[in-house]
Design a protein that fits this description.
Blueprint (H helix, E strand, L loop, with lengths): L2 E5 L3 H12 L3 E6 L10 E4 L2 E4 L9 H10 L4 H4 L2 E3 L4 E4 L5 E4 L4 H12 L3 H25 L19 E2 L12 E2 L3 H9 L2 H13 L13 H9 L2 E3 L3 H14 L3 E4 L3 E7 L2 E7 L4 E3 L2 E4 L33 E10 L9 E4 L4 H9 L14 E4 L12 E10 L10 H15 L6 H4 E7 L1 H8 L30 E3 L10 H17 L8
Helix pairs in contact: 1-9, 1-14, 2-14, 4-5, 5-8, 6-7
């Protein structure tokens, strides 16, 4: 039985901890904060409950596998899962209103033809069919295996489309020069209708990706949603984090909260434990760091944890990884029957929005007057005080702390008011129903999770010479492993669960392990 020290108590950390404990190891989780879940948190007030992180789950099979392999109770016996239908409603500035059914390709084609005109659904379907080729080519190396030593092969974009010639549009390869297509190229060229293009680009933006630089392989994101569905956890995503925490406890994983790790101990050329802020040293046979790898050098005496030729982490919030501005709304009045769970209200000026979020380097940025806003309205009695009230969450993707000063409360409230104004398109009479609202910015995210600038990691993608890959789970230091959203295979609850599975496999089966067959 080996002793395993896990730094952080996020979803990836707990996924690894539960699997390692079942394998017979003694696992201790050290979390600098006061609770588990990482970015999957909860805010409660006056009988209203809100997720502070993601509100919906994709690829639930990741957690079904985890619960099956770590105990007797299945995922569905631990939490209540329901498919969200429609998967999403989309509102555009010209008044177009389209509802996309959950996990129904034929239904999506019909909906898009009805909203955008004949042929729009077929063009979308053709694109999703090509995205399936991306899924088939990258599923194993990106999701089911540790990152290969020859990861450069994933730098080639598997989306089946010829290189494009760019003028000023996209401009990454010089004026008029041909290069691999980015997602914005695909949206413009293959979908024709600007509303359909905005729909495709919104999938990338929701995952922290700039469609002007994201590879065409990002088309896999709508493919995943439309193929495997979108799911809601009763009680919110925090209920899933609670269930995973309980599963860890059942497997005798020990949690130590308010326990900040200030150093990783090296002995005989391998990781041998962790040092805590109070000076305590906890010996271990292996260390799992479920934190941003860029934060690790200070824990290693200034040494970098990755090997020569490895994928490196983003240099910081100025690299373009955005955060989230979230507004919780406590509303009087019942949720109307037939209300969509998720509504996306698209910006009328995508270029202004992308400039406000991603900019050109580490510059101060002006807010977008009318950003894209996602409205979540769960039909869940456990998140509201009674049937005469409604809990609503508004979210917009924004620049992280640094390019924008999210510590400025007045500016944050002004930006939150923009989200509320936009949300009136989906919730008529919103301001008349509003009891109170609560604002959360990237500054809050950074303080609670330790993420630099409060940035939110997106999933790993093939293409773009590997710029959208995450650092490998293996490091240059034997016995030190990386898990969580900032490591392979990237961010989001499903991907973090995968990272935990990969790290557990490497520790239990050895560093030559290539994933489950």
């Amino acid at each position: 039985m080996a002793r395993i020290a896990v730094i952080g108590a996020g979803m990836g950390a707990m996924a690894a901890a539960a699997r390692l404990a079942v394998a017979g190891h003694r696992v201790v989780v050290y979390e600098r904060g006061g609770t588990h879940g990482g970015g999957v948190g909860r805010f409660e007030r006056d009988g209203f409950r809100f997720d502070t992180g993601p509100g919906l789950l994709r690829l639930p099979a990741v957690y079904r596998d985890l619960f099956v392999k770590t105990g007797k109770q299945t995922l569905e016996q631990s939490v209540e899962l329901t498919q969200v239908d429609p998967a999403s409603r989309h509102l555009f500035a010209d008044g177009t209103d389209v509802r996309l059914p959950n996990a129904s390709r034929a239904g999506v084609v019909q909906a898009l033809d009805g909203a955008f005109g004949a042929g729009a659904g077929e063009r979308w379907s053709d694109l999703v069919n090509r995205a399936r080729e991306v899924w088939d080519a990258t599923r194993r190396p990106l999701l089911e295996e540790p990152l290969r030593a020859d990861w450069q092969v994933l730098g080639r974009d598997p989306y089946p489309v010829a290189p494009v010639r760019r003028g000023w549009f996209g401009g990454l390869f010089g004026r008029g020069e041909a290069g691999p297509p980015v997602l914005a190229d695909v949206a413009r060229r293959e979908l024709k209708d600007p509303r359909a293009a905005a729909l495709l680009e919104s999938y990338a933006l929701a995952h922290s990706l700039d469609p002007r630089t994201a590879p065409a392989a990002a088309t896999v994101l709508p493919y995943i949603e439309q193929t495997f569905g979108t799911w809601y956890v009763r009680g919110g995503m925090r209920a899933l984090a609670d269930a995973l925490h309980e599963r860890c406890r059942q497997r005798k994983v020990e949690f130590r909260f308010a326990a900040e790790v200030t150093g990783i101990v090296e002995k005989d050329g391998r990781a041998a434990g962790v040092e805590l802020a109070d000076g305590t040293v906890a010996e271990a046979d292996a260390v799992v760091a479920a934190v941003d790898p860029a934060l690790l050098p200070p824990l290693l005496g200034g040494q970098e944890p990755w090997r020569n030729g490895d994928v490196r982490p983003d240099p910081g919030p100025g690299s373009g990884t955005p955060g989230r501005l979230t507004v919780f709304l406590a509303l009087r009045g019942a949720r109307p029957e037939g209300t969509a769970h998720r509504t996306v209200i698209h910006t009328p000026d995508r270029e202004a929005e992308l400039a406000a979020i991603f900019g050109d380097g580490y510059d101060l940025r002006e807010p977008c007057p009318r950003p894209t806003v996602t409205v979540l309205r769960p039909d869940d009695p456990t998140v509201r005080p009674d049937e005469d009230h409604e809990a609503v969450t508004l979210t917009a993707v924004v620049a992280p702390q640094g390019p924008v000063d999210w510590m400025d409360g007045t500016a944050a409230e002004e930006d939150a008011d923009r989200l509320i104004t936009a949300a009136e398109a989906a919730i008529p009479g919103l301001r008349d129903r509003l009891l109170w609202h609560e604002v959360r910015t990237p500054a809050h995210t950074g303080m609670e999770t330790g993420a630099r600038g409060g940035a939110v990691p997106g999933p790993a993608l093939a293409g773009a010479d590997g710029r959208f890959l995450r650092p490998a789970n293996l490091t240059r230091l034997p016995g030190l492993y990386l898990a969580g959203g900032w490591s392979h295979p990237g961010g989001g609850p499903a991907h973090e669960g995968m990272s935990g599975a990969l790290v557990a496999g490497l520790i239990v089966e050895g560093e030559d392990w290539r994933g489950s067959q």
